[in-house]
Amino acid sequence: MLIQISGGRGPAECSIAVEKLCKELLREYKNSSVVFVNEDNSGNGYKSAIMEIDDSVNDLTGTVLWICKSPVRANHQRKNWYVDVSILNEAEEITDFKEEDCKIETMHCGGKGGQNVNKVESGVRVRHIASGITVECRQERSQYMNKQKALKRIQAILRKKEEDNKKELASDAWSKHSEIVRGNPVRVYEGEKFKRKNIKM
Fold first, then answer.
1. Number of compact structural domains in the chain
2. How many angstroms separate the CA atoms of 40 and 139, rounded?
3. Residue 114 reports pLDDT greater than 80
4. Least confident of 10-14, 137-141, 147-151, 176-180
5. Nearest 5 degrees, angle CA 192-CA 193-CA 196?
6. Which of 107, 124, 88, 120 is CA-nearest to residue 1?
7. In this structure, is residue 153 part of a structural domain?
8. Are 50 and 2 in contact (CB under 8 A)?
9. Is 183 a domain residue?
10. Residues whose CB is less than 8 angstroms from the CB of residue 44 and which lie 6 or more positions away in sequence, other chains included
11. Residue 174: predicted pLDDT
12. Strand runs labelled E in the chain
């Protein structure tokens, strides 16, 4: 399952929260990986990131709150920073998307998996030339399967960007914070160590 974690149009603190949440989910879910990041121009964290998690994450979708004094603005009074988690649909294909629009490279897959992993270039890196979006896929032993999976990821990311652009044009409120709902967060984290806080239901 692909999920997008986004700080919307929030400040650098929201981008830091996105990166921290990515790292936390990598620890929480063993079969997970970050497949794409949109880095903050200030060098602080990620404006958005896309992760693949081989588990149900329906209870994670919604708003995540990070309570912390700003790590980049010492005198800033605000302590609540919000990010949004949403599921990306890989099933639908973009009709005008072509494999020729991408640059495809193969690579050796590291880690466990026996001799096949070390000798065969089964890993695939795909870059969508027009947008510059790049993803890698190494999970499958077949190069073909990794390529197909990477192409689907590219399409899912492009589709999400298109949806976000439409929202931005349709609503001035979205441009302020990408329609992130600030009430009733599904998760709350505290402090620079990003410790999860229990929420009373």
1. 1
2. 27
3. no
4. 176-180
5. 110
6. 88
7. no
8. yes
9. yes
10. 12, 13, 15, 16, 72
11. 41
12. 2-6, 32-39, 46-53, 62-67, 80-88, 102-107, 123-128, 134-137, 187-190, 195-197
151: in domain = no
* Spatial distance between the Cα atoms of 10 and 70, rounded to a whole number of angstroms: 13
3-state secondary structure (DSSP) of residue 167: helix
Containing H/E element for 28?
A: helix 12-28
How far is residue 152 from each of residues 56, 86, 157, 187, measured CA to CA in Å?
A: 19, 17, 9, 29
DSSP character for 100?
G
Segment 32-77, tens digit of pLDDT: 999 889 888 878 899 999 898 988 888 889 999 999 999 999 889 9
What is the tens place of the pLDDT at every residue in 179-199? 566 678 999 999 999 999 987
CA distance 67 to 82: 9
- The CATH number of the domain where 85 resides is what? 3.30.70.1660
CB neighbour list of residue 137: distance below 8 Å, 6 or more residues apart: 35, 123, 124, 126, 146, 147, 149, 150, 153
Closest CA to 154 of 105, 81, 79, 101: 101
Structure tokens at 63: 């708003």
Q: Is residue 7 part of a domain?
A: yes
Domain of 35?
2-89+172-197
The b-or-e profile of 1-32 (16+ CB within 10 A means b, else e) is ebbbbbbbbbbbbbbbbbbbbbebbeeebeeb
Token pair in block for residue 127: 């870059």
